[in-house]
Design goal:
Blueprint lengths: L1 H4 L1 E10 L5 E12 L5 E10 L1 H5 L1
Antiparallel strand pairs: 1-2, 2-3
């Protein structure tokens, strides 16, 4: 989706933390491009989804 649309919204993921447990998150991201269309960076935001997962 990032390559096709330039963004992703609320993809459900599980992150493994340093103690080996998992953390449910929602991932959103936006691709940033230069004027010539080349990808310069990707900005990601992770949202804690523990409460959402509980119901």
């Amino acid at each position: 989706m990032m390559r096709l649309q330039g963004h992703v919204r609320e993809i459900s993921c599980m992150l493994e933390v340093t103690d080996g447990s998992t953390l449910p998150v929602l991932l959103s991201g936006k691709a940033r491009q230069a004027a010539d269309g080349t990808l310069t960076r990707v900005d990601y935001t992770f949202f804690d989804a523990r409460e959402r997962r509980s119901y």
